[in-house]
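subagent[fold] <- orchestrator: predict structure for attached chain, return C-alpha cells only, no commentary.
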Amino acid sequence: MSNTPYMGQIGPIVLTNDDGIEAAGLHTMARAFYERFGQRVAVVAPLGERSAVGHGITLRSELLVKRVPLPGLPEVPAFGVAGTPVDCVKLAVRVLVGAQPAMVCSGVNHGYNLGTDVFYSGTVSAALEAAILGLPALAVSTGPRDCLSFETASNLACRLACVVLQRGLPSRTLLNLNVPPVSDGVPDLPDLSITRLGFRSYRNAFRKSRATEDGDFYVLASETLEEEDEEGTDVSALMRGRVSLTPIHLDLTNHSVLASLEGLATVTEGSRLRMRGRRCSAVRSWPAHAPDAFPETAERLSWAIQGVELAWGIVPETQSGAGGPAEAGDSCTARRFLRAGIAVPTEPLPPARLELVHSREYLDFLAGYAAQGGGMLSVDTKVTEGSYRAAALASSAAWLGVEQSVQTGRPSLALVRPPGHHAGIASGMGFCLVNHAAVAARLFQVALPGGPRRVAIVDWDVHHGNGTAAVFAADPDCLYVSIHESPLYPYTGWYTEAGTGPGEGTTVNLPLPGSLTDEQAVEAFQRVVVPCIAAYRPELILVSAGFDGHWSDQISTWQLTANGYHALTAAVRETARAAGLPVVVLLEGGYTPAAVRLGVAAVAAGLAGRRPHAAAAADEPRSGPASRRQAAAFRERLDEIASFQRRYWGLG
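subagent[fold] -> orchestrator:
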C-alpha cells in the first residue's frame, strides 16, 4: 500500500455499485482502492442487483442493512443494503461510515454507461446522489468481456480518485468513466478522451407473459441499441476503443432555448418598493432580480417591509395586511426607515470588496452572465439581467448595516434579495448568488481600524448555510453557528463538522430533527448557541435570519412561529447588550407571506426590545404540541450536540 500524504486529512472513500455487493467489478475496485488508500475505504452496496433503477429511493419502508465480508478484504468495512444505489449513498453519508466521506466511487459496472444510459443507470445515479450531497464522485463502467477490464478500470479509477482528492471537482459535478475491454497480456492503458455525453436509444419489444383477472402482465423481451457516432462524445470514443471521461453536471437546463421560451409565460415584474429621495434606485433593484422566480419571489421584500411596518406602527395594520404589497414610498420616508434600523444602500458593493469572499473568476462570470440576460446558474438558482446588481446591492446593505450598528450602537436590519448563505467562494446555489453575511463579516474583520476583528455569525435559516460554513471553516476569527433542520437541503451541517485547521471548533452546527417547536428552538439556542457566543467573545454578531422554519412554509417541517423568532432575537440582543456588541440581522429564506411578514415583525420588535405586535403574538402552528416521538428525537439529538461541543466549549 502506497502512502498518500493527503489521505490523513480526509474522510473515507465510499465504494458502491448497482450490480450488488457480490459483483466481481466491485470486489476488484475494492482491492485496488484498498491497496492505494488502505483503511480509508468503505463499501456500501445493494444486497442484490439493482441495475437500471435510475435515481430511485426507498420511501416509507424499512431498509435492511447488514455486514457482508468481502473476499480477501477482511479489513474493509462492507455493508449490504436492501435498497437502491442511491439509498446506499444516503445511508453511507448519514449513518454508516462514521465521518463525512471524502468522495464516492460507483462501479465497476459490467456494461457501459454512455450517453442517455446515465438516466437509467444505478451506477451513475449513485455518483449523482453524491454530487447532490456536495461530495466529489466518480462512476466507473467497463465493457462486458473479462475480468482484466475490471482491473484496468479499477486502477484507472484509483488514479483519478487521487487527482480528484488533491484538486477537487466543481460544484455539483461528477465524472463518468467508461473503459473499453482489454485483452489478456495487454497491460497498457488505452488512450483516454475527455468527452461530452453522446446519444444512445433502445428500441424495446415487450411480450405478454400472462393474463389474469387483475390484468395483463408483460416482460421486456428484447431491445435493439441504436447509437450516434458523433465526434467528441463518449459513444464515439468507445467505438474507437478509447477510454471516455465525461464530466456530468446536475443542471439539465437547455440554456440555448431559454430566451426563445420567454414568450410562453406571462412575466410580471413583482412589487416595486419605493422610497423618497436618492435611495429609490437601490431599493428598486432588488425586485429586478429574477422577478418571476418561485418560491424565492420578488414579493418577499414587500412582505418583509410589511413586517417592519407592523412592528413599528409606521402604517395601520389594515394597510399592511394581506390585501396587497406594501408601498414604502407613500408611508415610509427614508428617515423613518433609518429610525427602524433598516440599512438602505445607495450603490452596489464594488467587486474588490466582494472578492474578500468570492473568487474574481466567479464574480466576473456572474456579472457577464447577467449582462447577457442570464439563465439557470444551477438547478434551483436563476440569474437575470438585474441579478448581479441586486446581489451586490444586497451585500452593500449588509455592510451598511454593520457600519450603522458600529456607529450608533443600535441593531440594524438588512432586508435583502437574493439571499446569500448558500453561496460559496466560487459557486451559487439555493437561490443565493453572493454571500452577504460572509462579505459583511470579512469587511468587519479587515476594513475597520484595529483589525483583525472577531465576528460571530448566527444562522437560523431552516437550511444549513453551507456557503458561509465553507468560507469560514478554517478561520479562527469567525464563529459560525447554524441551527437547521436535518436531514434537509443542502444535506450538510452535521454536528461533527466543527471547522478545519486553525478554525477547528469555531463552526458549531445544530442539525435538529423535523417538526421543531418554538420551545425546542429556544432551548437549543440557550443551551448551545448563547454559551458559545459568550465564550467566543466576538466584536460583532451577524444573524442570517431565515423564516422558512415557520409553520406556514412548506419547504420544511419545522413548526416555528413569530413568537419563536422573537425569542431567538431577544436572546441575541441580550447577549450582545451584555457585552456591548453591535448586531446586524440579514434576511435569508422564508417563502410565504405569513412567514416573512410575521417573522420580520417579530425580529424588528425583538431588536428594539419591544414585545411582538398582536398579530405576531397570536401566531400559532397548525400542528399543536410536539409528539412524544419527536420530543424524544429532539432530546437525544440536542444531548448529542451538547456532548460533542463540550470538547470546544464549556457547556453545562
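orchestrator: received. Logging for downstream: The two ends are 45 Å apart (CA to CA). The longest strand covers residues 200-212.
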